[in-house]
Q: What sequence folds into this?
């Protein structure tokens, strides 16, 4: 994909994922939340849990999953830690990290607890 097409496809995928979490009963508290360490695509609340969601879009779910690198996971951890700093329980807040895989026709596969801090 070219830069502009890729950007808009990514934004559309993030919106679709946020809507899926909303229709699943979670509260979306932030989209494209930016901290000093980086950005988290979607942050949702599932009861007492905060869910940090990385959205990956590609031709297939497998290809999308292959785009998540250990370096990127580390950046997501650091960014999530910044967000948790503003929560009442801080770093002791209940949190999980999901990855939402979106294929070329818009099908979404959610991998809960895709990686652990």
A:
């Amino acid at each position: 994909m070219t830069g502009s097409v890729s950007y808009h496809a990514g934004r559309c995928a993030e919106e679709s994922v946020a809507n899926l979490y909303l229709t699943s009963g979670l509260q979306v508290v932030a989209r494209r939340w930016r901290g000093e360490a980086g950005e988290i695509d979607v942050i949702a609340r599932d009861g007492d849990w905060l869910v940090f969601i990385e959205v990956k879009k590609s031709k297939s779910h497998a290809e999308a999953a292959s785009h998540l690198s250990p370096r990127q996971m580390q950046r997501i951890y650091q960014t999530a830690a910044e967000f948790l700093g503003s929560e009442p329980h801080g770093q002791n807040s209940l949190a999980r990290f999901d990855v939402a895989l979106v294929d070329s026709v818009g099908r979404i596969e959610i991998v809960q607890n895709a990686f652990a801090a």
Observations:
- The longest strand covers residues 49-57.
